[in-house]
Amino acid sequence: MKTRFLAIAALAVLASCSKSDPLPEAIKIWNADEMVQRFQDEQLGSAANEYAYVDIDADGTQELLLRQHIEEEWGEGTGFMAVFTNGKSGLKLVGLSHNMAQTGGITVSKNGVVKVSDGNESGTKGEVNSYVLKNSEIAAVYSDVYEYVEPEEDAEYDENWVYDRESYFVSEPAGSQRKEITAAEFEKALAGADDEYYSSDFNWQKIEVK
Questions:
Q1: Can you tell me whether residue 14 is helix, strand or coil?
Q2: Does residue 82 come out as left (phi exceeding 0), alpha (psi in the -120 to 50 range) or beta?
Q3: Residue 41's beta-bridge partner residues?
Q4: In angstroms, what CA-CA distances link 138 with 11, 156, 174?
Q5: Where are the beta strands (DSSP E) in 22-98?
Q6: What is the pTM of this model?
């Protein structure tokens, strides 16, 4: 009897320690996002309709992905997409962007990096933030900030004038004040991050509308 009681108690402890499904909370965060609310396509809308679990940083805990899967006559693709960590600190939004817009996008690398890009429609300036995931948390953020300055029509050519301006920063630990680093330091820290997943690599599941 005592052995059975201990076994039941152990199961109760395990049940209390197990995490609940983060999907409902993630959908609430998605729906409350300012960009999602601002982008309301009359035909496509902006609601998340698919989700996938994947262990991005290979630590044994799965991250959660949401996306707006679009199917039209011209084909299919991903509109909005979001990545969430679900570590010890709970569900956290890493990034959310629109993959079909000219001003941004979000990708997942096979070495635990999530890239979120943002810029203006003309492409003259923007920023790419690379979130390095470790132990299901954001460990560091590396930022590539770029700008192209259009010379004036009557400006004389100056070979010393730099029209392309690009700066690199790091915030480590994430949330701390970011500091400027060199291009070499930036490239070394993100080595291998260009090896990215395709959206079709994930096991997407339909979100049931209740």
A1: helix
A2: beta
A3: 45
A4: 31, 46, 6
A5: 50-54, 63-72, 75-87, 90-98
A6: 0.82
